[in-house]
Design brief:
Elements lengths: L1 H7 L13 H11 L1 E3 L3 E5 L5 H8 L2 H7 L9 H11 L6 E7 L2 E12 L4 E8 L9 H16 L4 E7 L3 H9 L3 E12 L2 E11 L3
Parallel strand pairs: 5-6
Antiparallel strand pairs: 1-2, 2-3, 3-4, 4-5, 6-8, 7-8
Amino acid sequence: GKESRNNTKMYADNHLRTDGRQEESLKQILSKASLRGQRLLIRNLKTEDYDAFAELFADEDVLYYYLPSRLQTYSGSTLAELMSDWNDLDTAFVFTVLHEQKPIGIITCESVDFEMEHAEVGIALLSSAERGQGLAAEAMTIFIDFLFRDLELHRLNARIISGNEDSCKLFKRLHFRHEGTQRDYVRRGSRYLDMNIFGLLARD
């Protein structure tokens, strides 16, 4: 809504591109970003969040639909390595969703291309206790506004594995459009699952 859009506009008005002198400025913005909604605080990932993420990345049932790559669990050093890779503040970054000062979710932004002005986004809540309260929609609304307004992206992509109905409903609610399907894209044992491609433009 309008209130969340106003709350997230807190950075310099110059074009935030990753060329030349502005690359370091962009990393500083991402690492220090603090986005507030009515119930949530969203900020860049911190190492202190890893323990909260441990349950999510140990749950094969959740990762079955969350990870677009090989299905495996992560913990300890492997989880830290994964998070460091996902949060390189260059082509990818991770934000933590906090409710009442407690981490409850993770938002990923990857395949970031500032020249083409697009990126891929995803979200997961850390446990079933946080689901069904509209928290994912609130978090993504705030985050999407940050990407369009502050980072001046033009297009956002979301990839959703077939069978993940909750994510499909969420991104449709956020006005993403289903733009195509990559057939048999994800392998799970002897099964192959389709990958659904959703897109949202800044003008949408």
